[in-house]
């Protein structure tokens, strides 16, 4: 079994799992006033401080959530609602064409149900959103802008955006900037304060923590209307009993990922470069997608001309190799990736893509297994895609 | 063998896949996404193409512990089955879309892709027997037998097909599903046409073909006895919904005898005028043995769940001709004629062809 899908989810770190189990054994609601509650509260607040310290935020800026999708929705909808409430004319949501669906679909929902207008900014052939594109947009529409949301690093093709530059442009126009940094934390340096963003999404299960827990880092002066109403546990912006065990494990994972980031990224990039070199050797006609250098160290993304990505995935899966077509599913049916299409790929190239993503358990043997299976799979997939004579 | 199980989300295909696993095959489950917009197809437990069906199929595959994927066949299905369905009606014929789906999708597009990807065969939950002798036979469950809609398959297609349910009744299949812990055990059977969500075939055709008013003509007198809104809405043998202005001179009910798209005419007449003793058909396949040189005595079935009559059948490369030993009413062009040889081990499909007249 060669697991090459760490960008989908990566195994929990041992220390995070141990912290989870230890905390989950303890009873206590962090909102309770008695000793058990205080103990849970302490665990949560210590975790908040650890996450804040690791990501360059203040503890009060850490809002724990149920994961990346919730954080993205809270940022996009919550900031939109708050900005619109402050000034009714501010209803334009500016984003990029390559965002994750957790952002794109939230933006689209605001468009359809909340009277938002949407500016989806184009990217270049490597998936990059250029700061001058944002500047042009804001020069024209800045007075109507509710927020800008652009991801730190792309989950499909791995391209890392120049977030600080983009955030600075937004700041010039006084528009809050949210970034989905789910794929970035632990892979590239991420510092909330230094980046100048108003809000940042991070989640546990992409960096060795548990699924179902994450955070929105939300600047102290940034208003957001809650999605979930109830006990108001998190700064009155997010309600729900705090998942002490999940939060503790999340904090352990974030801290470990950030602390080891530089060394980890170097090792991962070396392994990834080896994968890319050997895939190119095995299948010379592959097209390598995304920015060649400024990309996530664990990400390799290719188009295999003449193949369908889902046929390749099936064939590799049958040989114990796990990867992803990187595209969203609609009823389980692969749609051509909106990211590849936004980068200028045609439908065929978009459908012929596979993402291999490495993580902390990846080894050279995983790549050996991939290279052993890949040429045969490509040949078969090509035959399966070849047009046949009609009956 | 490496086999691909087509899993609709229903009980039959789930049990068929389970039996293939039990027989020791390396099984991969595939659900075919046939609707361009799944919401427009039959919903709930009745169809085979909805999101719920897709999830049911995936859940069954998970219970069986086999890989599962969804294959998008919507464009092919639309072109080869739905458009064909409409075009056939427009041409005055009565198509069978299930048969066409078997011929063009399940045992063609899907099978070809499966073979190209390294699979040896396709497994489906059809109720028919296909044993080691390579002969296609009726299911032991006469009420559920689907050999008629499989009769169109060629030798090459049959050689790469597996129908593990042919020796079981539907009740046995349901019981087995329950024993295997498959949640679809008591899911209702699908019926009607999956791509006509409300079951209103006439409305579906009218939407695509538009109103085309024309005459309803009496075959005996040649008189115009009524008007229709589109000849495509009629099927040979139909009695209801004719809305005739004038009763027949003899006062007996009249039936649709033929549809003539060229003149947009529906011809009606008495029941006995529906009786047919010869059937001509085109595009024959012959899988029950070597193609016979002369006429052979066998039985023929002329529509799904239709009666079976003895006949002498002559077949060559392009046509099939049947002399029926007793008259049959309501034989419609576009339907299949399937020839069977009676056999104690299950009637054997000899071959089939598409009825022209």
From TrEMBL, chain A:
Domain Aminotransferase class V intervals: 3-370
Protein's UniProt name: Cysteine desulfurase
A Pfam family hit: Aminotran_5
Superkingdom of source: Bacteria
Catalytic activity: (sulfur carrier)-H + L-cysteine = (sulfur carrier)-SH + L-alanine
Similarity comment text for this entry: Belongs to the class-V pyridoxal-phosphate-dependent aminotransferase family. NifS/IscS subfamily.
Keywords of the record: Iron, Iron-sulfur, Metal-binding, Pyridoxal phosphate, Transferase
InterPro entries: Aminotrans_V_dom, Cysteine_dSase, PyrdxlP-dep_Trfase, PyrdxlP-dep_Trfase_major, PyrdxlP-dep_Trfase_small
GO molecular function: cysteine desulfurase activity; iron-sulfur cluster binding; metal ion binding
Organism: Verrucosispora sioxanthis
Cofactor: pyridoxal 5'-phosphate
Automatic annotation (TrEMBL), chain B:
CDD domains the record matches: MnmA_TRMU-like
GO MF term set: ATP binding; tRNA binding; tRNA-uridine 2-sulfurtransferase activity
Principal subcellular localisation of the protein: cytoplasm
Span of domain tRNA-specific 2-thiouridylase MnmA-like central: 203-269
Amino-acid positions noted as binding ATP in the UniProt annotation, renumbered to this chain: 6-13, 32, 125
Sequence ranges assigned to domain tRNA-specific 2-thiouridylase MnmA-like C-terminal in this UniProt record: 277-355
Assigned EC number: 2.8.1.13
GO cellular component terms, A-Z: cytoplasm
Coiled coil: none
Record GO biological process: tRNA wobble position uridine thiolation
Site entry: Interaction with tRNA: 126, 335
Subcellular location(s) per record: Cytoplasm
Domain of life: Bacteria
Class of this enzyme: transferase
Keywords: ATP-binding, Cytoplasm, Disulfide bond, Nucleotide-binding, RNA-binding, Transferase, tRNA processing, tRNA-binding
Chain residue ranges for the region called Interaction with tRNA: 144-146
Catalytic activities: S-sulfanyl-L-cysteinyl-[protein] + uridine(34) in tRNA + AH2 + ATP = 2-thiouridine(34) in tRNA + L-cysteinyl-[protein] + A + AMP + diphosphate + H(+)
Family: Belongs to the MnmA/TRMU family.
General function of this protein: Catalyzes the 2-thiolation of uridine at the wobble position (U34) of tRNA, leading to the formation of s(2)U34.
Protein name, per record: tRNA-specific 2-thiouridylase MnmA
The encoding gene: mnmA
